Each structure stands twice: as C-alpha cells, then as structure tokens.
Amino acid sequence: MADNATDTSPCQSCGACCSYSxxxxxxxxxxxxQLDLIPPQFVNARQSGMRCEGDRCSALAGRVGEATRCEVYxxxxxxxxxxxxxxxxxxxxxxxxxxxxxxxxxxx
Length: 108
Fold this sequence. Notes:
InterPro entries: Puta_zinc/iron-chelating_dom. This is YkgJ family cysteine cluster protein. Pfam families: CxxCxxCC. Helices cover 18% and strands 11% of the residues. The chain is built from 3 helices and 4 strands. The chain has helices at residues 32-36, 78-82, 88-96, and strands at residues 52-53, 56-57, 60-63, 67-70. A two-stranded antiparallel ribbon has the order 1-2. Strands 3-4 form a two-stranded antiparallel sheet. Strand 3 (60-63) and strand 4 form a beta hairpin.
C-alpha cells in the first residue's frame, strides 16, 4: 500500500493483511521517536499497536480486494514493513478474504 499511484505492488488492490485481526498490527521494535510519528488517532488505547475497527486497521482506506491504501504508509510500524506480497502471512490473510494467492517474491 504505497502512496505512489504508479506503484505496481499487488498490495494496492488488496489490504487483506491490514484487515486480518483486531490484535494486529502490533508495535514491536519501534522506539518512542518512531511511534510519535504515527498520528494518535491511529494508535490503540494501550499504545501497543494500531487501533482497529473490528479486524481492520484504522489506517487502512479503501475496499479490501479492490483498492486500498495505508494512511500512515511513510511511518507505518515495522511489522507492516516486513510483510511481503505472497509470503505466508499474505497468503493466510488473502485466504481469509477469499482472494486468490499471489506469487511470492521470496521463497517461503
């Protein structure tokens, strides 16, 4: 989910990983300075991760499986940065939403 409309990432038409669990994305290795860059309306009350509405991250805009974008993409948590199109987590999220699997850029 990139800001650049010319990005060919399949993530821009997906968003399944951002609509998978009310407990994800969680903050992991971010320091206070990095977390301060995320607008507070997107951070959960415990400040342990992104605020979710049901199973959907509050920073996800658009329709899952059609067209999505991350409202905090430049400052997204590390766990979001490590997700890769076609990896095991991607496949699990896409299955949950009834979306076809995509080829992995890296071996799983």
